[in-house]
Amino acid sequence: MFELSQDHEDFRAVVRDFAEREVAPNIAKWDAASYFPTDLVPKMGDLGLFGLVVPEEFGGSEGEDGSDFTSLCVAIEELGRVDQSIGITLSAGVGLGINPILTYGTQEQKERWLPDLVSGRALAGFGLTEPDAGSDAGATKTRAVLDGDEWVVDGAKAFITNSGTEITSVVTVTARTGTTADGKAEISAIMLPAGTPGFTVEPGYHKLGWHVSDTHGLSFDGARVPQDHLLGERGQGFRQFLKTLDDGRIAISALALGCAQACLELSTDYAKTRQAFGRPIGVNQGVSFQIADLAVMVEAARGLTYKAAWLKDEHAAGRRSVADVKHAAAVAKLYSTEAAVTATRIATQVFGGNGFMEEYPVARFYRDAKILEIGEGTSEVQRMLIARGLGLPA
């Protein structure tokens, strides 16, 4: 049965100290200015956060197969407990940036890109979503045509994390590269280094939340890269990225857990000290019962998140099936993200008028939480995946 080890808890303490020391004192001003703290990324790299699932050969954790996915979830939870934008920077940096290269890249591709990504000297992005292809990712319109020994890429991507920072080194994108024998689109994955002519990073979005996270649209107009920038097998890009998203859903569940944990802690502390009618508001059942509900949601989200992470590690060791991981990831992502949205609403209500003020972190968590139900597969998609996992008709 899954259980966090003492090593995991010791690691949690290290990441929590880092988040409290490096992120907490600065996050309000970063959020207000929509400022991406580039200098923070190498510090996260120095702590080993980007290398938790990467073998030592490429600068990651010791051992042939890297460390464990559970440790990554612990780190994402603890960063997300202080700020969701910093948590998603790590989650996307590893799950969407490093992981596809590590899983499907050639030895040469791994040696070229992974050391800088693991150290935090660089970030990588994952270009799947398009203006007209979100949950229906198979409707990709971006195209890549082989011209001699180069891929020529044309199209656009939307809402891509870590894609336009000063240290972004590469973005992997899905593109139509032909048609299969049954007439369907052949989708492959192509790596586009930052600065490639014809590869344009659009201005950053004006977002409801995640103000500190780097998010851009991308456009490609005759962007040329060498033929060896194909990631994995030609025609397997869609399958590769679906597998990548399974892992990413567990990471988003950990991020949501951090949000809910923060709301529980903030609400509990506030209810103990905020006075109304001559006594702490926590005396009132209307407040205390809501906080009790928060505690239950946090415990449930924690159990589902780390069960899914444990299954992912068990699968890596050959002891669990892909289907086990896929189902657990969808369940954890669905519950934890919806719980996080509810948790921010409860916390804002507990804080009353103060909860509507930006001086209090619950306002930031309230803004940040909604995207959790959308990114890496909407709640509706998760329900579809869960239903299919139960054997219901597709």
UniProtKB/TrEMBL annotation:
Descriptive protein name: Alkylation response protein AidB-like acyl-CoA dehydrogenase
A GO MF term: flavin adenine dinucleotide binding
Domain called Acyl-CoA oxidase/dehydrogenase middle: residue spans: 126-221
Cofactor(s) demanded: FAD
Record bears the keyword Flavoprotein: yes
UniProt KW keywords: FAD, Flavoprotein, Oxidoreductase
Annotated Acyl-CoA dehydrogenase/oxidase N-terminal domain residues: 5-120
One Pfam family hit: Acyl-CoA_dh_N
Span of domain Acyl-CoA dehydrogenase/oxidase C-terminal: 235-390
InterPro entries according to UniProt: Acyl-CoA_DH_CS, Acyl-CoA_Oxase/DH_mid-dom, Acyl-CoA_Oxase/DH_mid-dom_sf, AcylCo_DH-like_C, AcylCo_DH/oxidase_C, AcylCoA_DH/ox_N, AcylCoA_DH/ox_N_sf, AcylCoA_DH/oxidase_NM_dom_sf
Family according to the record: Belongs to the acyl-CoA dehydrogenase family.
Highest taxon listed in the record's lineage: Bacteria
